[in-house]
Amino acid sequence: MDVRKVKSRVVTALVAVSLAGSLCGFSSVAFGEDAPAGSMSFWEKTKVTGTVDVNYNYNINRPTTTAAAAAKNAYRGFDVNPNTFNIGLVELAIENSPNDWVSFRTDLDFGRDAGIVQATEAWGTATSTFNLQQAYIRLKTHVGNGLNFKVGKFVTMHGAEVIEAAANTNISRGFLFNYAIPFTHTGILASYSFADWINLDLGVVNGWNSVVDTNNGKSVHAMFTIKPMDKVVLTVGGTVGPETAGKDGPVRALVDSVLTYTLNDQWNFVLNYDIGRDNGLAAGGTKGIADWQGVAGYINWKPFDKFGLSLRGEYFKDDTVNAAGTTGMTAGALTGTTASKKIYEGTLTSHYYLADGLDLRFEYRHDQGDQSSFLRGTGASRKFQDTIASQLVYAF
């Protein structure tokens, strides 16, 4: 028998026992009865949630050309990269309530989607993989039925879809989410319930996705939430204010409405309509005008605990006219193509609920435009594109 090996094993065992004892002692001090009251009360009043999604997207057009910028899924905001695996969004949300009248929440986002959202903000870049999606303090009062305030940065109240993939019913986001509405606001928002069935949110914010305001004006952000019956929820609101950098005059206005009808545990229906106008869209603050409107319908069916289907149909119209005289969805147009002014899409997504909070999704989507604005691998363009995607989402 090798005496050195025996000694080595004995020493290793003693070190392991010593470390285990030390950890047990540390845990009894850190989390036991002798733990400082402040540290325990903080964690007892803190809620941590999060999501993570990984996905793969394939474009049947295979838009790979010599221009790297053109190798994209046209008119998409998040699933822009075709034929590749992606880490979409990794989010960690922390909410602490030291008492019943004040709370703090922050949402920390990582991954490709974090950079896409941050790129819309004054301090952001598309190459970033981190974004502070939300950071606000909520204050509650005893005025009337309860007047509450939210101060800081928070996600918009508009639209039927959200930034987190886990909270959406489709893998891809719709045109309305990408083009018609903002993602976030920074400012102050008051909320008041007039009755159990009607609530008003009203606030003053920097504008659309503006952590740092780019002019001296402010925007008004408002939303009525009406619940005429248990199964029906209607939200009607809007945002209005100057959005052109360096100019306080041109105004952007948006009206957003979402109707949700939940028939039972199996069937859910959603209808979203947006209409907007911006008098100062063109570069340099020249007299450009943007008019857009769109409608999206959603049908969600969950016949079994482990399986569900989600269908989305959507129409979006953009009558943008800027100083150069170009028209169409200029924000989404690809190099060398003619932008579409009218675009449609149909999306079917399947859900396989593998475990609590774990959703495996597969999706087919067809986009159709009124112009040949979807690139092919040959460098030519056509009026449509078809994509197939898969996604694994976990929410806790």
Radius of gyration: 25 Å
Helix-strand string? HHEEEHEEHEEEEEEEEEEEEE
- Give the low-pLDDT segments: 1-33, 329-337
The CATH class, by name, is Mainly Beta
N-C termini distance: 52 Å
Helix and strand composition category? mainly beta
Which architecture would the CATH scheme give at its second level?
Beta Barrel
Q: How would you name the CATH homologous superfamily?
A: Porin
Number of domains: 1
pLDDT averaged residue by residue: 83
Number of strands: 18
Strand coverage percent = over 45%
The total of helices stands at: 4
Within the CATH hierarchy, at the fold level, what is the topology?
Porin
Shape: globular
Helix content: 10-25%
Biggest sheet details = 16 strands, antiparallel, barrel
Strand order, main sheet: write it out: 1-2-3-4-5-6-7-8-9-10-11-12-13-14-15-18
How would you characterize the overall build of this protein?
This protein has 396 residues and is mainly β. The chain has one domain: Porin (Beta Barrel), CATH 2.40.160.10. Helix content is 13%, strand content 49%. The protein has 4 helices and 18 strands. The protein has helices at 3-31, 37-44, 112-118, 175-180; strands spanning 46-59, 84-99, 102-110, 130-140, 147-155, 184-195, 198-205, 219-229, 232-242, 251-262, 267-278, 290-304, 307-318, 342-355, 358-369, 374-375, 381-382, 384-395. It has a 16-stranded antiparallel β-barrel. Strands 16-17 form a two-stranded antiparallel ribbon. A hairpin with an 8-residue loop joins β9 (232-242) and β10. The protein is globular. It starts with a helix and ends with a strand. Mean pLDDT is 83; it is low at 1-33 and 329-337.
